[in-house]
Design a protein that fits this description.
The protein folds into 4 domains: 3-95 and 145-201 and 312-355, DNA primase, PRIM domain, CATH 3.90.920.10; 104-138; 235-307; 357-408, 3-Layer(aba) Sandwich (Ribosomal Protein L9, domain 1). 33% of the residues lie in helices and 20% in strands. It has helices at 3-17, 51-61, 104-107, 143-162, 188-191, 195-206, 235-250, 253-258, 265-270, 272-280, 293-307, 313-317, 350-353, 391-399; strands at residues 32-35, 42-46, 65-69, 71-73, 85-88, 90-95, 109-112, 118-120, 135-138, 171-175, 180-185, 322-324, 338-340, 361-369, 372-374, 377-379, 382-390, 403-405.
Length: 408
C-alpha cells in the first residue's frame, strides 16, 4: 500500500465512523469544494441540502481537504458569474506562515524548483540565486508557531469585542487543523458588507494606516501641553495610551532599541513615573526635557505594531472565499479543524484536542522529522529511520512528506 493510499484509507475510515459533520448556517446556500487525493485536483460548485447527504459524500469520496464558501448564494452549484451572491460571513485567518518566529529557521524548509537552491525559514518571493518564483516549501506545526498564532488570535478577539462590539456568542473561533486559527462572524449585520468595507475592518485590526500627529520634520513643539500625539480615549487611541504606559513601566534599554529608539535611553528609564502620569496620562508630551516628538511617535508606532493582529487581509476582503469545513481533516496534518469558545483559546491544545486518529499503528520510514508531540507522547527527532508509530503520528509525517509507509 502506498503512503497516499494509506492516508486516504485513514481519512475514509474517519469520515465513515463519525456520527455527523458540523455544518455551516444555511448549508443549502453554500458552495462546497473538495481536494482529491489521487487526482490532486479540486472539485468545486457542489451543494448539499443537509448534513446527512454531505456525510455520505465524504465517506465515499474521502477527500484530502473539504471547503465551503463564506458566501451565501441563490444557486451555489452554478458557475461564479451565475451563482447570485446574497452575502458573506466575515472571516479572519491567522496563520503562523505570516508570523516570523525563531523556530521558522529550525523546522521550515524551502527550495527553488528551478535551480534547486534551498534555505530555511520564511520562503522568499523569488529565488535569491536564479530569480525564479517557483518556490516549494515544507513547514511544520510546532508549539511555538501555534503559540504565536494563538496570541495574534487573542488580540484579534479583543479588538473585535472591545472596539467593534461583537459579543462572544457572535465570534466563532477555530483551530485550522494546521498552523493557525480562524475567527468567523455570521451575524446579519456583516453579511452584506462589500470588499471595501471588509478591507477597512482588516486595516483597523492590523493597524494599517494608523498615524500619529506631530510637528514637522526637525521641529520640536515648544508648548508644554503639546498635541504631538493626538490620542483619544477610544479605539486605537486608548490602546496606544495603555500600551505606552505598560511598555515604559517595564522597558529595558534593549526594549527601547527594538522599538526604534536610538538615543535618550536614560531620559526615559530615569523618568518612567513622570512620563506615564503626565506625558501619557495628561497628554503633556514635553513634560520631560530632551524627549522629542519623534521619539514619542516611534514608541507609539512600536506599541501599535505589537498590539495589532497579524491577519491575512486577503481572506477577510474576499466575499467569495472558500474556507475549511469544521470537523474535517486537514490534508497537511491529518488534524481536525476544531471550534471552541473564545474563552477556551488559551487552554486549547491542538496536538491533543484536534487529534482524529485514536488507535492503530503503522511501520514507516522517516526521512527527517523534528521532535513533536501527539497527545501526551513525544516523538522524534528522526532521520532516515524505520519505526512503528501510532496512526495519528504516522499520518502527520506522511501528510508532511517526511515519511513513507513500509510494506512488509
Amino acid at each position: 500500500m502506498s503512503s497516499k493510499d494509506f492516508v486516504q484509507k485513514a481519512f475514509r475510515e474517519f469520515y465513515s465512523s463519525i456520527r455527523e459533520v458540523p455544518i455551516p448556517a444555511s448549508i443549502s446556500q453554500r458552495e462546497f469544494a473538495f481536494f482529491l487525493f489521487r487526482e490532486r485536483i479540486m472539485i468545486r460548485h457542489k451543494s448539499f441540502k443537509n448534513a446527512s447527504v454531505l456525510k455520505v459524500f465524504l465517506s465515499e469520496t474521502a477527500p484530502s481537504d473539504v471547503y465551503y464558501s463564506c458566501a451565501y448564494y441563490e444557486n451555489p452549484e452554478y458557475e461564479m458569474d451565475r451563482k447570485g451572491w446574497l452575502g458573506a460571513d466575515l472571516v479572519f485567518d491567522i496563520d503562523a506562515d505570516h508570523i516570523p518566529t525563531p523556530c521558522n529557521k529550525i523546522h521550515d524548509e524551502w527550495f527553488c524548483k528551478t535551480c534547486k537552491f534551498e534555505g530555511l525559514g520564511i520562503p522568499p518571493d523569488r529565488c535569491p540565486v536564479c530569480g525564479s518564483q517557483k518556490i516549494e516549501t515544507k513547514t511544520w506545526p510546532c508549539p511555538l508557531c501555534l503559540t504565536s498564532a494563538k496570541e495574534e488570535t487573542r488580540k484579534l478577539i479583543d479588538i473585535l469585542q472591545s472596539d467593534f462590539g461583537f459579543s462572544s456568542s457572535e465570534l466563532h473561533v477555530y483551530f485550522s487543523g494546521h498552523r493557525g486559527f480562524h475567527v468567523q462572524i455570521e451575524a446579519e449585520k456583516v453579511k452584506t458588507l462589500d470588499a471595501a468595507a471588509r478591507k477597512e475592518i482588516a486595516d483597523y485590526v492590523s493597524a494599517v494606516g494608523l498615524t500619529f500627529r506631530g510637528g514637522q520634520r526637525g521641529e520640536e513643539p515648544n508648548r508644554k501641553h503639546s498635541d504631538a500625539l493626538a490620542l483619544s480615549n477610544l479605539g486605537w487611541g486608548k490602546r496606544v495610551k495603555e500600551g505606552l504606559q505598560r511598555f515604559i513601566a517595564d522597558a529595558t534599554k534593549e526594549d527601547l532599541k527594538n522599538a526604534g529608539i536610538r538615543k535618550g535611553f536614560d531620559i526615559i528609564l530615569q523618568n518612567r513615573d513622570k512620563l506615564i502620569a503626565r506625558g501619557i496620562g495628561e497628554g503633556m508630551w514635553q513634560s520631560v526635557k530632551g524627549l522629542s516628538t519623534r521619539t514619542w511617535i516611534k514608541l507609539a508606532e512600536s506599541v501599535a505594531s505589537v498590539q495589532s493582529a497579524k491577519i491575512d487581509s486577503v481572506v477577510t476582503t474576499d466575499v467569495h472565499r472558500l474556507i475549511r469545513l469544521t470537523g474535517t481533516l486537514h490534508g497537511k496534518t491529518g488534524l481536525k479543524k476544531m471550534e471552541f469558545l473564545p474563552s477556551e483559546l488559551e487552554g486549547f491544545d491542538p496536538f491533543k484536542d484536534a487529534v482524529a486518529f485514536k488507535s492503530g499503528s503503522v511501520n514507516v520510514f522517516v526521512f527527517n522529522a523534528p521532535e513533536f508531540r501527539i497527545g501526551d507522547r513525544v516523538y522524534g527527532p528522526y532521520r532516515n529511520q524505520a519505526i512503528e508509530l501510532p496512526t495519528a503520528a504516522a499520518v502527520l509525517l506522511l501528510c508532511k512528506g517526511r515519511a513513507e509507509v513500509l510494506n512488509e
